[in-house]
Amino acid sequence: MKNQFLGIFFYLLYLLAMVRPVLPIIEYYANYDYIATVLCENRDKPYLECNGKCYLEKQLKEVNHDNHEHKSTIPQINLEDYPVSPIDQYGYKISNINTEYLNQVFGINQISSDYYTSILKPPPKLVL
To answer: Where are the domains of the chain?
Structure first.
């Protein structure tokens, strides 16, 4: 019984966390008339057709925590001071590569497009 209660409790907490960002939108549509006439910052400018969207935007920013200015206590780590592997410490420079030799060894040839068009032809049209 106790495990079942804990499972339901954590499930409800999860649902609350998922619904939390949507609550200001639900509140906006539920109280649309009040927000548009009383809480809207642009109610004296009807040509903007804000209708309380400024209030909704503020509420969404508050829910999303975009306006917090606290400093993080997590120290910043410079990854260049702590290399993960020693490969970065060694530098390899390849110069004077003979491309003709590589083409012979690996069978890389510069085949022109004429070769492919001579092999890959569309099937002939059937005349009935």
So the answer is: 21-67
